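Bug #77: duplicate submission created two jobs. Keeping one. Sequence:
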Amino acid sequence: MPSRNSRTKVSENSPRSKGTVLASLAALGSVVLASSCCLPLLPFLFAAGTAGTSAFFVKLRPFLLAASVLLIAFGFYQKWRAKQCQCKPNLLSTVLLWFSAIVVLVFILFPQAIANILADLLAG
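Kept job's structure:
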């Protein structure tokens, strides 16, 4: 049985690095879905269906936000485990993880402000 010190270094394309990227992307996806209750996505293309999807997602918003937080925490755990294994950090996964964490935090703290900003941008 190999000891802790005899572990080999894993490349930056390792499954752990990919897991961190996937966790970050999943967190971003769930926070976008959670915010769709305030601002329906692509309102000009899906004008008839957005009211129904918005009403559906408003019920799921707490669960989607919780999923976002848990996925961000999982991403940081993956990053911490990679550091424990002395893996070379992947710049893309690090940037994406921190970007996801900031976006999730902003969407949790300021949902209506984000919706107003996006509505103003889309209105022209």
